[in-house]
Amino acid sequence: MRTADDGSVVISPHGAGDPVRAGELRHALVHLLRRVRPLRVIVDLSDVPDLDPFDVGSVAAACDLGDDHQVPVFVRSPSGAMTDRLTAAGIPRQRVSPSPHRP
């Protein structure tokens, strides 16, 4: 997790999903949105090969919670397939962008 120059907080999970990391991601997102309330939150999935359903649900719920707390949540996704899974879970397509590390 890091804070960008514009005040956005960027969360960058790494590697394949597992239940422990999914719980940590959910906890970090809830803490940021309820307690810290940065300008925006960016979930950077550039180093995540795939998301399990728990991760997808956690990110989708974070978008809704962020809306409730006036903190927009955006997702950087490295693949079209992952983008499709995230939007199917209810994340608006305009909040999911390709990773800046890929063409």
From TrEMBL:
<dbReference type="Pfam" id="PF01740">
    <property type="entry name" value="STAS"/>
</dbReference>
<dbReference type="InterPro" id="IPR002645">
    <property type="entry name" value="STAS_dom"/>
</dbReference>
<protein>
    <recommendedName>
        <fullName>STAS domain-containing protein</fullName>
    </recommendedName>
</protein>
<dbReference type="InterPro" id="IPR036513">
    <property type="entry name" value="STAS_dom_sf"/>
</dbReference>
<feature type="domain" description="STAS">
    <location>
        <begin position="6"/>
        <end position="91"/>
    </location>
</feature>
